[in-house]
Amino acid sequence: MKLNMIDAIHLGLQEELVRDEKIYLIGEDIGRKGGAFGATKGLQEQFGADRVMDAPLAESGIVGMALGSAMAGMRPVCEIQFADFIFPAFNQIYSEVSKLRYRTNNDFEAPMVIRAPYGGGIQGGLYHSQSIESFFAHMPGLRVVIPSGPRDAKALLKTAIRSNDPVLFLEHKKAYRSLVEVVGDAEECFPIDQAIMKKQGTDCLIITYGLFVSKAVKVAEKLAEEGYSVGVLDLVSIYPLDQATILDAAKASGKVLLLSEGNKEGNVISEVAAVLAEEILFELDAPIKRLAAPDVPAVPNAKTLEDAYLHFSETLEEETRALILF
Amino acid sequence: MSIKMIEMPRIGESSVEGTLVKWLVEPGEKIKKYQPIAEIMTAKVTTEMPSMLSGIVQEQLIEEMATVAVGEAILAVQTVEKAVEEQVVQAPLKETISQPNTMARLPEKGLSPSVRRLSKEHQIDLTQVTGTGIRGRITKKDIAQYVQNRNQSPQPQVTSTKKVEVKKLIASDTQQVIQPSPIRLAIAKHMEESKSDIPHAWMMVEADVTPLVKRREQLKHHFLEENGVKLTYFPYFVKAVAIALKKVPLLNASWQNNQILQHHEINLSIAVGTDKALFTPVIMHADQKSVRDIAVEIQQIVQHIRAGNLHQVQMEGGTFTVNNTGAFGSVLSKGIINAPQGGILQVESIVKRPVVIDDMIAIRSMVNLCLSFDHRLLDGVMAGEFLATLKETLLQTEA
């Protein structure tokens, strides 16, 4: 069955709600409206208001309530309407959710998922376009998972829901409807702790995640016509990193280009660069290249400014070629 | 603040490397844009190199008298980007648009950590590996390819032990070892290439320059007064060669990559020697200049050479060389062509000799003109025609 990413996520949630009665959804406008993007459309009708719950505009409350219920044996899936709105819940996530298992010495666990659409390129402006993953990629006890397409989204979301530990599940909103592919059945679950080699290559490796994976694959295919062999690695797990796969993949060519939509300084890809430099310096054949957004406070609203902000991603092909030729 | 590199500049159209003769700045020193930072020598010319950056000298990356390729980093400078820092005060902006590709920065000699490691592991002499990366950088792939080729070749040990070692000369009580200057080395290299690449053919004619000698005798005092320059014979020969080349253009050409490059401009290199070196400055468009113009120009060039500030540009673009060997008393010599030119004419000493004209013996001023030419370009027939034309031109000089 071919689905776009939002429909694949919808189907994944539906299948999980059927499978396990302890699972429930909570978020702003997810019930009667079916979510800002339609991820939960019709699910309240199907499963009732107790399992698909509309919450007040209070992200801290959504996450805090989910955590409490998770401690009591439920398996909540929260939706933060836009990742830009997650920060009122930051304290709950950092101080409570991520630390629960550790501080109770395994007496309690938090089997919960927090879904949030992130990313720009849709003229959403300052409060509907940000890439916030780096803020959460520094919390042992919390996984950060980002799917790069419909099939992965559904199969990773299922694993996240079935995990007994909390997962922040970030979905690039531009990927919701732009990517379409055949998705797996109700039991297809992909590991949420493993990077995926989307394409093998011996001349250079692009490491990225989310929406940019499909862009990187396109560039790799284009460069293949020129006779270059470009690998593409999808990080999938932004935190913690799948270091073994990353290091293995990077060794093939010794030339690595990292791509992220977040601001460059302090980006999660900088951590990848650090791991490479620390572990396999003597396998590297070129300086590690990072392509990321400029260090400005937000993705701007005006089309021209947003294009300028995202311009770095348009240089992917030429930067990759430069790295190959280095 | 950021560290930026100043690279070996390309001085002159054909230079591929340069020698750093002397550093004019030290680490820790503050430098301004356009301030001279070093003396650089490329094939035959020494020149001061201006800085393209302002900042503080961080490190001299090469030593004095080291020769490096054009484009290689030679000086690290810590720069202060004022404009950016001022922006930071107003808003937390660091850069508005991502910087263009900075891949051009090369580590020392461009060897990456993986290449260093692999070359050690496989005991590879890196001088034997062909680099396919940017500016000939040896890449990890090049090493893999090299190792693969080596493993496939029947005698792998031969290649690794085949290292050619440069024999160092050893001084003794009776012998001294002199390290040639970069200029001497450049001349040696150019001569070696010219002589080994070009199949030289040689031809000599005797020319009667009696009218030219008379003409010059009449003019020389007046000329000196008017131009402040001594009138010698040489400008006459330069002019005559230009005229002859115009009539027989085949010699005003270069044999390159199995093709003939015919020059339309007649730009004559003239050989000027000092006790240490040989320079070949160029008289551009010699066919369009008068003997007077040429005389004055030669005088200026000689002054430049004596002052040591001949510019590389003044030595470029030559299409044929005229060499005034007569100046040091020679009557016969075989010139080495100034590659990639097609020929060189040696003008020997003018001597008075008895010659037979119309079955009568006369005292005439005679000169030997010796031509070395690239035999790939032309044969004796056309070379002979060129010399005959030259002879005729000289004889036609109005007395």
UniProtKB/TrEMBL annotation, chain A:
<keyword id="KW-0786">Thiamine pyrophosphate</keyword>
<dbReference type="InterPro" id="IPR005475">
    <property type="entry name" value="Transketolase-like_Pyr-bd"/>
</dbReference>
<dbReference type="GO" id="GO:0016491">
    <property type="term" value="F:oxidoreductase activity"/>
</dbReference>
<dbReference type="InterPro" id="IPR033248">
    <property type="entry name" value="Transketolase_C"/>
</dbReference>
<dbReference type="InterPro" id="IPR009014">
    <property type="entry name" value="Transketo_C/PFOR_II"/>
</dbReference>
<feature type="domain" description="Transketolase-like pyrimidine-binding">
    <location>
        <begin position="3"/>
        <end position="178"/>
    </location>
</feature>
<protein>
    <submittedName>
        <fullName>Branched-chain alpha-keto acid dehydrogenase E1 component</fullName>
    </submittedName>
</protein>
<dbReference type="Pfam" id="PF02779">
    <property type="entry name" value="Transket_pyr"/>
</dbReference>
<dbReference type="InterPro" id="IPR029061">
    <property type="entry name" value="THDP-binding"/>
</dbReference>
<keyword id="KW-0560">Oxidoreductase</keyword>
<dbReference type="Pfam" id="PF02780">
    <property type="entry name" value="Transketolase_C"/>
</dbReference>
UniProtKB/TrEMBL annotation, chain B:
<dbReference type="InterPro" id="IPR011053">
    <property type="entry name" value="Single_hybrid_motif"/>
</dbReference>
<keyword id="KW-0012">Acyltransferase</keyword>
<dbReference type="InterPro" id="IPR050743">
    <property type="entry name" value="2-oxoacid_DH_E2_comp"/>
</dbReference>
<dbReference type="Pfam" id="PF00364">
    <property type="entry name" value="Biotin_lipoyl"/>
</dbReference>
<dbReference type="Pfam" id="PF02817">
    <property type="entry name" value="E3_binding"/>
</dbReference>
<feature type="domain" description="Lipoyl-binding">
    <location>
        <begin position="3"/>
        <end position="78"/>
    </location>
</feature>
<keyword id="KW-0808">Transferase</keyword>
<dbReference type="Pfam" id="PF00198">
    <property type="entry name" value="2-oxoacid_dh"/>
</dbReference>
<dbReference type="InterPro" id="IPR001078">
    <property type="entry name" value="2-oxoacid_DH_actylTfrase"/>
</dbReference>
<keyword id="KW-0450">Lipoyl</keyword>
<dbReference type="InterPro" id="IPR036625">
    <property type="entry name" value="E3-bd_dom_sf"/>
</dbReference>
<dbReference type="InterPro" id="IPR004167">
    <property type="entry name" value="PSBD"/>
</dbReference>
<dbReference type="GO" id="GO:0005737">
    <property type="term" value="C:cytoplasm"/>
</dbReference>
<dbReference type="InterPro" id="IPR000089">
    <property type="entry name" value="Biotin_lipoyl"/>
</dbReference>
<feature type="domain" description="Peripheral subunit-binding (PSBD)">
    <location>
        <begin position="110"/>
        <end position="147"/>
    </location>
</feature>
<dbReference type="InterPro" id="IPR003016">
    <property type="entry name" value="2-oxoA_DH_lipoyl-BS"/>
</dbReference>
<comment type="similarity">
    <text>Belongs to the 2-oxoacid dehydrogenase family.</text>
</comment>
<dbReference type="InterPro" id="IPR023213">
    <property type="entry name" value="CAT-like_dom_sf"/>
</dbReference>
<dbReference type="GO" id="GO:0031405">
    <property type="term" value="F:lipoic acid binding"/>
</dbReference>
<dbReference type="GO" id="GO:0016407">
    <property type="term" value="F:acetyltransferase activity"/>
</dbReference>
<protein>
    <recommendedName>
        <fullName>Dihydrolipoamide acetyltransferase component of pyruvate dehydrogenase complex</fullName>
        <ecNumber>2.3.1.-</ecNumber>
    </recommendedName>
</protein>
